[in-house]
Amino acid sequence: xxxxxxxxxxxxxxxxxxxxxxxxxxxxxxxxxxxxxxxxxxxxxxxxxxxxxxxxxxxxxxxxxxxxxxxxxxxxxxxxxxxxxxxxxxxxxxxxxxxxxxxxxxxxxxxxxxxxxxxxxxxxxxxxxxxxxxxxxxxxxxxxxxxxxxxxxxxxxxxxxxxxxxxxxxxxxxxxxxxxxxxxxxxxxxxxxxxxxxxxxxxxxxxxxxxxxxxxxxxxxxxxxxxxxxxxxxxxxxxxxxxxxxxxxxxxxxxxxxxxxxxxxxxxxxxxxxxxxxxxxxxxxxxxxxxxxxxxxxxxxxxxxxxxxxxxxxxxxxxxxxxxxxxxxxxxxxxxxxxxxxxxxxxxxxxxxxxxxxxxxxxxxxxxxxxxx
Length: 373
Known about the structure:
Distance between the termini: 18 Å
Shape: globular
CATH class of the largest domain: Alpha Beta
Structural class: alpha/beta
CATH architecture of the largest domain: 3-Layer(aba) Sandwich
Strand content: 5-15%
Number of strands: 13
Number of domains: 2
CATH topology of the largest domain: Aspartate Aminotransferase, domain 2
CATH superfamily of the largest domain: Type I PLP-dependent aspartate aminotransferase-like (Major domain)
């Protein structure tokens, strides 16, 4: 069986984890956490990066930092993971879902302004498959209406929009290092802070509402409870596992891009014949080969193709069920405008195996099975 996903692993990870154990510093904000923060800051240009226990928690942190209050509205796509909405629902806010673009599966930037009301507090664009939303338009709308922008860049590390790293364009950006992502620490994430003057506020919330981060840096002689907060620090052992991958980040990225390109070249004739749909990467966007998906004619064809691939030793999957159709989505949020593409395109999309370690020969086999189908 060709697995859908195999978590990334770098050889030095075991050595680095043992080093953590020997140092007797395995809790949060140890040496490897700092190494990861600094690597992300250098590669993205963000003012500050704070590793977190998940992208979900990074988004929750961002929601607190922009002071989301009960009754506030946050505009986002319905075609996303539940964490995008949950981070704001937990603060009492209302997710306002807008339709997606059928080419990129990202929120349609042309529909955002019509969804803005006097209650709107923020926009949460989701960069699906590591392909950027149309951020110039989103930032312009946010600027005119005084809205915060929190980028859900869970799938976006090593990707960019017009030369800017995803996660660094809005007020805050959120990465995921879940086992299904390009770089992984099992469970984990990161908060990217565009403006450095928000760093101290973020550190306090992340450290249970205390100023312990300043204490560890020797800036104060004792720490105390300053504000509300929670515990968002990952173990340094998890960070050590991640850092080994970040050291070879370009190697991993290039390998994934080679796989993505092989899929595309193999399947382009089917797309040109109108048999399937392929991913679209708009001009100005540099993607990171987070996933490779194809689109079937409809949900029935998709179901049959997934079953056919499984019978031939290939694990492929569909992706999100639109949030506005879910029980919690109907309870906590609302869809603004017409669902022209969100449901239809979500029912057509299926993801193919994509991971560091997948071979070009395996990709060729997968494409052969798709052609046979």
